[in-house]
Structures are given as C-alpha cells and as structure tokens.
Design brief:
The protein is α+β, with helices and mostly antiparallel strands. 51% of the residues lie in helices and 12% in strands. The strands form 3 sheets. A 4-stranded antiparallel sheet has the order 1-2-5-6, with helices on one face. Strands 3-4 form a two-stranded antiparallel sheet. Strand 1 and strand 2 form a beta hairpin. Helix 2 packs parallel to helix 4 and helix 3 runs antiparallel to helix 4. It is flat.
C-alpha cells in the first residue's frame, strides 16, 4: 500500500527454505534401572494373571466333562436296570408265546406252499397253452413264434397282446417266489423274460398298426381326406386310435377319433399338420413303464397308460385301369417312429456337412 503512494520499497526478505518432510521424532527418554524393573514386573504380573485364568478355565471344563461322564454312566446304569426289570417281567410271556410264534410260522409256510400248489393246479385246469416261464427253452421258442406272427387285425392283435401280458404276469409271480426263496439267478432270469414278453406285445401292436396304415385307403374320409381308425378291447379298457395325414391340411387343427375311444380328441401343431406323418394314441390297462423308472417321482400310479407316437406314413395305394397298385416298403410290416419336433430335410444335410467337416479335421 505504501508502495502505491510512492513510499520506498522495502528490500526483499529472504524466504525460508522448504520445511523438512516427515515427523520430527523426539529423542526417547532413557529409563532408569528402577523404571525398567517396574515395567518388567508389571509385564510378568499380567502374564501370570493370564496363565492363571487359562488354568482356571481348563479346570472348570475338565470338571464339567467329568460331571457329564458321571451323569452318562448313571443313566446307562439306570437304563440297564430298567431293561433287565422289563426282561424279567416279559420272560414268562415270551416263553408262553414262543410256541405260538413257531406254530404261526409253520402255518404261514404251509399256506404259502398251498398257495403255490393251488396256483399250479389252477394253471393246469385252465389248460394254459403258453409255456411255463421257468422253462427258458420253451419260453424262448414261444417268443420266436410271436415275433414271427404276421400282421393281425386289431381285434386279433389285442387277443395276442393280452396273452403276452398274461405270460408277463406269470413271470412276475414266479419272480416273486424266487425272491422269497433267495434264488437270485432265477429272479433275474424271470425279470428278463417278463420284459421280453412285453416287448413281444409291443411288436404285435406295431405290426397291427403298420397293417392298418398300409390299408389306409379303406379308412380315408372322403370329405376331409384324413384317415382315422379306432379299435377297442375289453370294454374300452384298451384301445388304439390311428390318424394319418395324407392331405397336409393345416387349417383343421383339431382331430376327433371316431368310435368309442373314450371320446378322444387332439389339437395338433402346424408342423404335424403339414407333414406326411401318422399319429397313434394307444391306451393300455397295464403299466409297463413304472418298473423301468429310477425313482418314485417318475413312476405312474393309478389307471393305465396313454401313449402317443408319431409314425412315418407309407404311400397310399393307387388305382390304375382297374388295377390297385400297393407299394411294398419297409413300413408294410413295421412302424418307424418320428421324433418331435420333426427334423427338417436341411437338418440332415447340415448334420452330414458337420460330420464331413469333423472327419476332415480328424484327417
């Protein structure tokens, strides 16, 4: 301010240099011998108090453990005395009932033998034509005969399927006996034969289905062009309904099966309606799937099983100049299941290209 009004400027003062960085440590005061001895004594006193506290804690834990062990020994002694007293009280009753249990076991054993004899006698009186499941040679020959049976109409096919199921039921009866007797080899053999009998029944159903689809012209509806066929057995307990799509009409999404198939109707997706496939809905009175399940959540309990399959459709017969030409193919006597979603033709090409690329990579 004085400089602004013409006053003489004071000479520049030298600015102080940079301050030293860091903390300025004060010199420790040297302790005397008496102070050092006092601190050492104080530290030793703290360590001694800590040691005594740990020893007291360990002593209390040991006393608690010994008390628990004493209580456990006292409880075991009292429990042993109680059990001995009850055994002494029940000893006369046990001696009196020993004869009863022996007689009961003998009666149950005789009843089991009588039940087995009655079953064999009833089987003989019924003049069963099927082989004894315990005879492996006769059973295998019967399976070969069933597999060699030509395609049958559904009425006859249901009868043969019922025979196969009766054989499977006999296999289960003898399997239970083998398990009761502890014969593991027979039990496993009868289990395999039961599954073979049910596979034979499935083969009969597939042949009947293939025969019906091969003669689809006889069941084709003139108005819609659809092919529908229903066959039932034993008062609708078992039935099979077939629907074939030769016209590929995507407008009609709901199909109703004629006849008495439990008023069965289905709404099909567009992919099925536009493909040359057949659909088979089959209800069986026997659950042949639960025994193959790995846990109880997969098993089915209650009534029979309704199985729906998509099948490849054989070509229809054509009529030319009074002659009926029926193509012969592998689908005449067998069915070919189609997985859903139905694979597109280009999917197979992509798979082939991918396989070829993998082969080139391997080379």
């Amino acid at each position: 301010r004085a400089h602004r009004f013409g006053a003489a400027r004071e000479p520049n003062r030298r600015r102080p240099g940079p301050r030293p960085r860091g903390r300025i440590m004060a010199k420790k005061k040297k302790l005397s011998a008496e102070e050092k001895a006092a601190k050492a004594a104080e530290k030793a006193a703290k360590e001694e108090a800590k040691r005594r506290k740990a020893e007291e804690k360990a002593r209390r834990e040991e006393e608690a453990r010994l008390a628990r062990e004493a209580e456990d020994r006292e409880f075991e002694r009292e429990e042993a005395e109680r059990v001995a007293a009850e055994d002494a009280t029940l000893a006369p009753t046990r001696e009196e009932s020993a004869g009863f249990h022996a007689r009961r076991d003998a009666v149950l054993a005789r009843r089991s033998l009588n039940a087995r004899d009655e079953y064999e006698w009833d089987r003989t009186l019924r003049c069963v034509s099927t082989p004894d499941p315990r005879d492996g040679v006769a059973f295998d020959a019967w399976v070969v005969d069933v597999d060699a049976t030509p395609p049958l109409p559904f009425a006859d096919a249901f009868e043969l399927m019922e025979t196969c199921e009766s054989v499977a039921g006999e296999c289960e009866v003898y399997r239970a006996r083998a398990a009761e007797d502890g014969d593991d080899d027979s039990r496993e053999a009868l289990t395999r034969r039961k599954r073979a009998a049910r596979r034979a029944a499935e083969s009969v159903a597939d042949k009947a289905t293939a025969s019906c689809l091969d003669r689809a012209n006889e069941h084709q509806d003139e108005a819609t062009g659809y092919v529908g066929c229903v066959a039932d057995h034993d008062g609708c307990r078992e039935w099979c309904a077939l629907w074939a799509n030769h016209v590929k009409n995507p407008r009609r999404k709901t199909i109703d099966f004629p006849g008495s198939a439990g008023k069965f109707a289905a709404e099909l997706p567009k992919q099925v309606l536009t493909a040359a496939v057949a659909m088979r809905a089959r209800r069986t009175a026997v659950d042949a799937h639960s025994e193959l399940c790995t846990n109880e959540l997969m098993a089915v309990s209650g009534a029979g099983i309704l199985a729906v399959d998509l099948l490849s459709l054989p070509p229809l017969a054509t009529t030319r100049k009074g002659w009926t030409v029926k193509p012969r193919s592998s689908l005449t006597d067998a069915v070919e299941r189609v997985r859903y979603p139905i694979p597109r033709p280009d999917d197979d090409d992509d798979d082939d290209a991918g396989d070829a690329a993998r082969d080139d990579d391997d080379d």
